[in-house]
Write a structure and sequence with these properties.
Structural class of chain A: alpha/beta
CATH superfamily of chain A: P-loop containing nucleotide triphosphate hydrolases
Number of helices of chain A: 10
Distance between the termini of chain B: 27 Å
Distance between the termini of chain A: 34 Å
CATH class of chain A: Alpha Beta
Radius of gyration of chain B: 23 Å
Helix content of chain A: 25-40%
Largest interface: A-B, 31 and 27 residues
CATH topology of chain A: Rossmann fold
Oligomer: heterodimer
Largest sheet of chain A: 6 strands, mixed
Strand order of the largest sheet of chain B: 1-4
Shape of chain B: globular
Strand order of the largest sheet of chain A: 6-7-8-3-9-10
CATH architecture of chain A: 3-Layer(aba) Sandwich
Helix content of chain B: over 70%
Order of helices and strands of chain A: EEEHEEHEHHHHEHEHEEHH
Number of helices of chain B: 14
Shape of chain A: globular
């Protein structure tokens, strides 16, 4: 039982979190392999965002184990948000959060992997390696020709890509992406899917999504959350044909 | 294009500052009092005071306009700096006070015959100046540490800073603090051996204030170009994103808060010998609020805006408090509301606002055509 645990890049075991009596996360067990692209679906209030909050240190679980790292398991429940981020866990929020008064280039510059101290920031200079790295990220997310524009002038979809780019600039081991396709046109959604697929293998990625067309496009292994607990896991087809999942989504009563 | 405008601003400020620092004192010394070019001693002192207010305004804007931290207690640090200078100036009175004792008059009045121990080192000018920076800096550090660690943000932060300055105000009103109670310090005579009642001393203080403001401006200008300045504005626009990018935003905010407190303290240090008095009234909540109005009138999020705002509002105050003394506060309030609603970018943003208005009003059709063209071009697939 203990031996295989080390192979997972992310492990949540027996995690519980209640908000004023409401059990947002209920005995959650979740394991992820390195380089995996995992999609999490689940109805509203299933605990998807709370799970992200727990992984990134925004919320502390009441009980349970949250560990990160393939070789040396680091206990995430004892760290704060910036510390966890510096381990290599990047998070993209549902609504695009970019620095609207900075240029696209500067947005990426501030996100690049590197020292994060106050006095370092006071005397930091942009090196040519950093420029090259930013150019590469710009190319990946398709914003090369917008580099010098203010991020506030980008379209909704472009802001989402910029934010994904900001995560990539940190070269994270694990990427948490919360509803990247929300508010996007079909074309933008498709492009986003391709972007995420291109990252598969280089990073471990968790995507939370509602849009089933999008899930079909990107999904390898799908985890269904319900009432803070993993309901089932498997391929898209397995999951969609699962009786329990139909019950949860369509609201059918159990016949006991 | 944008960079050119920024450089232009720098040059305008440099030229204006040097002109003010050199020309105004020269006009004061070398022109006859009857000449229309003459700058009176009174004017020099008033402008010197405005220069100090401008520094205070910059410190408010560094927090509010650049970091998104609306401090409603910035006058506290200004006044603390002023008190440190005031203690030095009180010691320089020597035994020329009303009671002709070697200790400040208010201490004699309170029944003291010997100088309290903590007053001793303030006879030393460098010590007083170091304390003028350290004490406000330390207070800002302590308060900021507690506030930012506890993730106090937004309006809660503003209310706390206001409460802090009010609490300090009440504390300084007490005679038992041995800092002059509600009368504070006044009746100063000498600074570094120069008589404060001499016009030349006041000119010197004016020049010192001008240089200090210029240095503060240049230092802040530099700060905004560093990565720290970029992080600062990123915190203002999306603090969560900054935290989730691995930056401990609390440390950054703390650094800026201490830095801004020290700028305010320098302003207070130069203010006191020019106005000749310092008392707890300077840290009353409305003083800090006034500084916020200067910044919003001038244009927040710029460095030139607070300077323009401090001069414009205080010039108006000087006039209005003489012409319509009862109406000044109504005036100030109305101005704040007007600027907030109709001129969100203040005086500095006015040219851009007017040209946008002009374009919209008088060139409606071409503008619409441009927008339509943009929409069609951006809708095209790549």
């Amino acid at each position: 039982m203990n031996a295989p645990i080390k192979q997972f890049v992310l492990l949540l075991e027996g995690v519980n979190k209640a908000f004023e009596g409401f059990k947002a996360i209920n005995d959650l067990n979740f394991y992820m392999d390195e380089g995996e692209l995992r999609t999490i679906i689940g109805p509203n209030g299933a605990g998807k965002s709370t799970m992200m909050d727990i992984i990134t240190g925004r919320t502390r679980p009441d009980t349970g184990k949250v560990e990160f790292g393939k070789d040396d398991s680091l206990d995430l429940t004892k760290m704060n948000v910036p510390e966890i981020n510096r381990l290599g866990i990047g998070r993209k929020f549902q609504t695009p959060s970019v620095y609207i008064h900075h240029t696209v280039f500067e947005n990426l510059l501030l996100s690049l992997k590197g020292p994060r101290g106050v006095f370092n920031a006071l005397f930091a200079r942009t090196t040519s390696e950093q420029r090259d790295r930013i150019e590469a990220v710009l190319k990946t997310v398709g914003l090369t020709n917008r580099a010098q524009d203010l991020a506030g002038s980008l379209s909704h979809g472009q802001k989402q890509w910029l934010e994904i780019g900001m995560l990539l600039a940190q070269d994270p081991k694990l990427l948490l992406v919360d509803e990247p396709a929300a508010g996007m046109t079909d074309e933008e959604t498709h492009k986003t899917g391709e972007l995420l697929l291109s990252l598969e293998g280089k990073h471990s990625i968790i995507v939370i999504e509602h849009d089933m067309t999008f899930v079909r496009q990107i999904a390898r292994k799908v985890t269904v959350l319900h009432q803070g607990h993993v309901l089932c896991e498997g391929s898209v087809d397995d999951v969609q044909n699962d009786e329990r999942v139909k019950e949860v989504y369509l609201g059918r009563k159990k016949k006991h | 294009m944008q960079r050119k405008i920024k450089n232009l601003e720098l040059w305008v400020v440099l030229v204006l500052a040097l002109a003010a620092i050199i020309i105004l004192p020269c006009l004061n010394v070398y022109t006859a009092e009857t000449s229309w070019l003459h700058v009176s001693n009174f004017t020099i002192t008033v402008y010197g005071k405005y220069l100090c207010y401008a520094m205070l305004a910059i410190s408010v804007d560094l927090l509010w306009g650049y970091t998104g931290l609306l401090s409603l207690g910035q006058a506290l640090f200004f006044t603390l700096g002023g008190y440190m200078m005031g203690m030095y100036l009180m010691r320089m009175i020597g035994d020329l006070g009303q009671y002709h004792q070697p200790i400040p008059d208010f201490l004699v009045f309170l029944g003291w015959t010997k100088l309290p121990a903590f007053w001793e080192p303030f006879s030393n000018f460098p010590f007083a100046m170091v304390m003028a920076l350290l004490l406000p800096g330390a207070l800002a550090g302590l308060f900021g540490y507690l506030a930012f660690r506890s993730r106090i943000r937004g309006v809660y932060f503003s209310i706390l800073t206001q409460a802090l300055t009010y609490a300090a105000c009440l504390l300084f009103f007490r005679n038992s603090l041995l800092l002059g109670g509600n009368n504070g310090f006044t009746d100063f005579k000498f600074i570094l051996g120069h008589d404060l009642r001499e016009a030349s001393t006041q000119r010197g203080l004016f020049i010192a204030s001008g240089i200090a403001l210029l240095l503060v401006y240049l230092l802040c200008k530099w700060l905004t170009t560093t990565k720290l300045g970029k992080v600062q504005r990123a915190i203002r626009d999306s603090e969560n994103r900054v935290m989730f990018s691995g930056y401990s935003t609390a440390n950054f905010k703390l650094f800026i808060f201490i830095f801004a407190a020290m700028i305010a303290a320098v302003a207070g240090v130069l203010y006191v010998p020019q106005v000749g008095i310092i008392n707890p009234g300077e840290m009353a909540p409305e003083k800090s609020l006034e500084a916020v109005v200067w910044v919003s009138v001038g244009g927040r999020g710029t460095l030139i805006g607070p300077i323009i705002g401090a001069f414009a509002v205080n010039a108006m105050k000087s006039w209005a408090t003489r012409a319509y003394p009862d109406l000044w506060l109504i005036f100030l309030g109305t101005m704040f509301i007007f600027v907030t609603v109709f001129m969100p970018k203040g005086i500095v943003g006015l040219p851009a606002q007017l040209s946008a208005f002009y374009k919209k009003r008088f060139a409606k059709k071409p503008a619409e055509a441009v927008v339509a063209a943009k929409e069609t071009s951006s809708a095209k697939p790549e």
